[in-house]
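Re-run with default settings, no changes from the original entry. Doing this only to confirm the output is reproducible before filing.
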Amino acid sequence: MKIKIIGIGSYIPQKEVKNTDFDKHVFLNEDGTPFGYPNEVVIKKFKGITGIENRRYAEDKHTTSDLAFYAAEKAIENANIDKESLDYIIFAHNFGDVKTGTNQSDMIPSLATRVKNKLNIKNPKCVAYDIHFGCPGWIEGVLQANAFIKSGMAKRVLVIGAETLSRVVDDHDRDSMIYSDGAGASILEASTDESGLLSYESATFANDEANFLYFGKSYNPDLDPDIKYIKMYGRKIYEFALSNVPNAMKDCLDKSGIAIDDVKKILIHQANEKMDEAIIDRFYKLYDKTAPKDIMPMSIHDLGNSSVATVPTLYDLLIQGKLENHQINKGDVVIFASVGAGMNINAFVYRY
């Protein structure tokens, strides 16, 4: 038995924030000292490394569960199913519902329960719960759905990845330019044909890597040190990803029995353009190959890094034909992969 994605949907906020909107920010070093060069240089270097030109922020009236609800509605419509037939709602996020003007996290009740309520699902046997797995959360949710369906515990599962990272960034940290908001949702059920999930890998590295991403105080020493913001050791994450993600992808592909030349697309977490390109190059080198042109669709240039939402949103855009020079056809093999807080790594090989 295999499981497949029978419905996909995403919600991309309309509020566009350009790199030039950061012109007036007061960026500081970790010790609170000012940078030795102007913002235009900061922004130029940022664009050269990450590839990000724009990002999307949620409207003030929306929270993470709102974005997830909109994406879930689209996925249910795309799958053409009765929402009451869902056995599980699995919601992957990092910081819960964070309202505009505060970075306090609200996760009670669970965001999955909130989405179920917004969808007006009456069936009490539709179980709703959250998972916190960093950026790879949506993929991990898919793997859990796979286990539920194969075990007979479920027939149909809604898996969501959503985040509003713009609510938890330190405006004085240049890394704040990376983050964005969004949501992606998918409906999964057992496959009756050759399509579906073929193999998977998942791992947590929790020694020194456990603290590469963390919640810390603002770089501005005048602000309340008890108010925390998302922080990261970018260089360490970059090095970790390059050392571990290609190997995980290779292990996953080898288990599937699919040849590297038969892979049509690789959908990887949209974290950093240079990092993603380096991961793909290193992955192909493990097979003594060169990465084909257009193997890796990218959305980060216009949408930024919306964490757990990036992969399902990217897949939705690919399915809809909204990514220039990229398309997917019946029978194509796709690798999904992600890396993030934990540090967690996961991947799955999928036949469309």
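Helices lie at 39-50, 64-79, 111-119, 137-151, 234-256, 273-285, 300-303, 310-319. The chain has a mean pLDDT of 96.
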